[in-house]
Amino acid sequence: MTAECPDRGDLRRELHALLLDAVPDLPSTVTDDTPLISSGLVESTTLLGLALWVEDRLGREVDLGAFDLLSEWDSIKLILDFVECHRMTSAGPGTTATRSS
């Protein structure tokens, strides 16, 4: 993959680092399948940081009201799936074709 399109392992490491910064008491037992939102580990302010991270990876805005955050972003695996799925398309649910500054 190119530098503009990091592989899943790189994305996972970035996402995990973001979560550790945002949630300092994140348990070391968090796996790719650990529920983040439904468990209360990730709250609204962290979700905003996640949204910005996802937008940066997609290169476009994400409308958080256009999809169900709980079913699509409740784990590291689901967030990575969302990014991979929507970066493969020109626009997807909750995304616009261009990102505004």
Using DSSP, what is the number of strands? 0
Counting H and I runs of at least 4 residues, what is the number of helices? 4
Unreliable residue stretches: 97-101
User: What count of structural domains?
Assistant: 1
Query: What is the global morphology?
Result: globular
Q: Can you tell me about this structure?
A:
With 101 residues, the chain is an all-alpha fold. The protein has one domain (8-87): Non-ribosomal Peptide Synthetase Peptidyl Carrier Protein, Chain A (Orthogonal Bundle), CATH 1.10.1200.10. The protein is 46% helix and 0% strand. α1 (8-22) runs antiparallel to α2 and α1 (8-22) crosses α4 (76-87). The longest helix has 15 residues, at 8-22. The termini are far apart.
Compact overview of the structure:
The chain is mainly alpha-helical. It contains four helices and no strands.
Layout: helices, strands, pairs:
Layout: H1 8-22, H2 44-58, H3 69-72, H4 76-87
Key structural traits:
101 residues; mainly alpha; 0% strand
